[in-house]
Fold this sequence. Notes:
B: 7 strands
Amino acid sequence: MNIDIWRKELWHPVTVHFPLVLLLGATANQTAAMLADNQNRPAWQTASSITLLLGVATAWLSLYTGDLADGIVARTICDPTELKDHEITARAMTYTFTVAAILQQIVRWIITPRLRRFTNILVLLILITGTCLLIKAGHLGASVVYQQGGGVAGYPQDCD
Amino acid sequence: MKQRSILAIIVILFITAACGEKTSVVESGTYQGTIHEVEADKNEIYVKTADGKLLELYFTKTTTLTRNGATIPFSELAFGKKVSVEVKKAGQRLDPIAVEILE
Lengths: 160, 103
């Protein structure tokens, strides 16, 4: 069997694991920042900010590579509705973390302590929401690959 | 308080806007509807049927595309055009057999 390892649909699994790690890390770092004392909080917030920005950038890249793979994989699997759910959830997840990243940068310019505190809590809530979407998107993506063989060369198909 | 409310509303609206529309699976057969979206780079169309179902159709090598019996190129498909689609259900996948532009 001649299998091309540069197939267009293979760029998605190359990119998608970076946002998984980075965005989960961002949520964990932000949680630690909210629980930390005043001395340690800035370090956790910086860590959260860096992981979130990198995570959002790689999430957008993964949306692009996912879109490249979609047209190929959807034609070969037996249940493309699962792929559609994966796409919708991943898009909602990316937007959610993008909103969190924007708010996190806005927090730097807020002078009022109460509003800053409120915005930080809001960022954490959005990150937790994004994490739930991330887990759902990841589970659906895994199901497309491991249950349906999406993007797997030579996978036997018997749809009926 | 007002600032907080505005901030929260903007966040909710932004996230809601990110959510897409779910597609439907129907039995094999012929359906009429209007084109909801065309993704030319994927040879893919979305058709909204009269009863509000959204069908996602990826053209295959054997899908025929016609108007008044004559074969036409994929670029003729556009948002809002009325079409008749014959689909074959394979698992939960809808393979378009024939697509005909009705107007």
